[in-house]
Write a structure and sequence with these properties.
Keywords: Membrane, Transmembrane, Transmembrane helix. With 509 residues, the chain is of the alpha/beta class. The protein folds into 3 domains: 175 residues, ANL, N-terminal domain (Rossmann fold); 175 residues, 3-Layer(aba) Sandwich (Rossmann fold); 83 residues, GMP Synthetase, Chain A, domain 3 (2-Layer Sandwich), CATH 3.30.300.30. Helices cover 32% and strands 23% of the residues.
Length: 509
């Protein structure tokens, strides 16, 4: 099962996969703005050749080895392809979500010391309004496509310990931090991922809707290509598009953010055939409630479908894993995230002084990961605040069992007085009240637990069932109803809880 460690150079990995599996397919649900020549279907080899052309065009525009290039565009697979092309030049891709506003972007641009920025129609207005980036450093996708050249440029390299890739934190607590990765740190993460993929014997189609600016994306794609899987990146997560794409392509594997699985669960209940081809489900970033996992497993045409739940963090990569089946879910606690991968990742629980506590005692979750990021760019002191020798304080709150299993209870900054775990209560409500697409419990008036709920667009709020379900739970305020798409979210669909709290406080004042 276990794969050899190898530093991850994005382009080199792509090229080697193209040599081993040149005709393996990549499908798209929408045309790619920056790579229109790939149309809706391409191969590993054809996309590799297109990458070299884009790299050459970027070099002609003026991009040089070691320079930083912000990729700030619509969330499609070509966001990742541009990052690979930038890596070909020995430059550093800075992956920034298109949803970040211009004021936040100006702060990040200033931190990056005169970077370039690639943008498209989705981000043009914000990119062109930036105060800290001159127009000469802005590169429209259309400019890349129109740039001519005489011959292809050669690949250049950064050393394995050099910063070679940056992503950003979710920004749930303020301005995002820029997380710096090297080929070495990313290599350990792909080893973790490839170990998991080695358990899948058949190279079936892998469909995924994941934020392309998250480190999860480049680790996942690099690992899948190294193993030769056909790919189906999904840009549009709408119910209608998911129905069309999964019906047309019938993937064997499906991965998305936990909140998208929750939102798609109503579709899975109403039209289970949409997901019948899926044998392996994969969710990362956050925990996911038990009934949502069970709903998708019941859709599968396979006798023993599997739902892989992975708990991790951008700074450390994938960490703790647990495999769920229809039978195991009946007796499991969805808060129980599982165990680490021997030799690569593990977790411990500590008190407020950073001292390890006994099994069964709640505390702060600290992580050990060979794939830990290098630093927060230009904010090293903030990074070091979370470093405890070989351990990283995750900012999460949890507990470990006597057998070593980790349970996630809350974010440390989201703890609500008199509630052991807001996440556990949210899970219980989502498990039972299937007319809800989202439940979030935040601190309301005087710190009291305030539920914010989103009702499925095809359903209505059932108040009788709500009050019946919460009658044996810790006291909750009357829920506030909000549209699903009005809830403030990060690029990976996490709820920005502190922003919700601020909005609630402002409305009360």
């Amino acid at each position: 099962m276990f794969n050899k460690y190898k530093p991850l150079n994005l382009y080199t990995n792509f090229a080697e996969a193209s040599e081993r599996f040149p005709s393996q397919a990549i499908y798209f649900d929408e045309p790619l703005t920056a790579f229109p020549e790939l149309q809706l279907q391409t191969t590993y080899l054809d996309s590799k050749n297109a990458l070299i052309m884009k790299a050459t065009q970027l070099q002609k525009i003026g991009v040089k080895k070691g320079e930083k290039i912000i990729v700030y565009k619509s969330a499609k697979f070509d966001t990742y392809l541009l990052a690979v092309a930038i890596s070909y030049l020995g430059a550093v891709p800075i992956m920034i979500s298109a949803h970040l506003p211009a004021p936040t972007m100006d702060i990040l641009v200033a931190r990056l010391d005169d970077p370039w920025m690639i943008f498209d129609g989705d981000t043009a207005a914000k990119a062109q309004s930036l105060k800290n980036l001159p127009a000469s450093k802005l590169i429209a996708v259309e400019e890349i496509l129109a740039t001519t050249f005489d011959k292809l440029c050669e690949q250049d390299f950064l050393t394995p310990d050099t910063i070679s890739y940056m992503t950003h934190t979710s920004g749930t607590t303020g301005v995002p931090k820029l997380i710096a990765h090297s080929a070495n740190s990313m290599g350990w993460r792909t080893k973790w991922q490839k170990n998991i993929l080695s358990l899948i014997r058949k190279r079936g189609l892998v469909a995924f809707h994941i934020s392309p600016v998250h480190s999860r994306f480049n680790i996942g794609i690099s690992s899948l290509m190294a193993k030769g899987f056909p790919l189906l990146p999904i840009a549009n997560p709408s119910r209608a598009n998911i129905t069309r794409v999964l019906t047309d392509y019938a993937p064997m594997v499906l991965e998305t953010h936990p909140n998208h699985f929750v939102q798609w669960a109503s579709l899975a209940r109403e039209e289970p055939a949409v997901f019948q081809s899926v044998k392996y489900y994969h969710s990362t970033f956050d925990a996911i409630n038990k009934e949502t996992m069970a709903t998708f497993l019941r859709c599968s045409e396979y006798r023993l479908p599997v739902f892989l739940q992975v708990y991790g963090q951008s700074e450390c990569g994938p960490m703790i894993m647990r495999f769920h089946t229809k039978s195991t879910l009946k007796r499991t606690n969805a808060r129980a995230m599982g165990v680490g991968m021997p030799g690569l990742t593990k977790a411990r629980i500590v008190n407020q002084d950073g001292k390890p506590v006994a099994a069964g005692v709640s505390g702060n979750i600290q992580m050990f990961s060979k794939g830990r990021a290098l630093t927060y760019y230009k904010e090293t002191p903030r990074f070091e605040e979370n470093v405890y020798g070989a351990w990283w304080d995750s900012g999460d709150y949890g507990v470990k069992s006597r057998l070593g299993g980790l349970s996630l209870l809350d974010r440390q900054v989201d703890l609500v007085d008199k509630i052991d775990s807001t996440l556990a209560i949210e899970d219980a409500l989502l498990d039972e009240l299937t007319f809800l697409d989202e439940v979030v419990i935040i601190r309301g008036k005087n710190g009291s637990p305030q539920p914010i709920v989103a009702v499925n667009e095809s359903a209505e709020m059932n108040w009788d069932l709500w009050w019946k379900k919460v009658s044996d739970l810790p006291h909750l305020n009357e829920p506030i109803l909000m549209r699903y798409d009005e809830m403030p979210r990060t690029a990976t669909m996490k709820i920005q809880r502190l922003e919700l709290e601020r909005s609630l406080q402002n409305s009360e004042n």
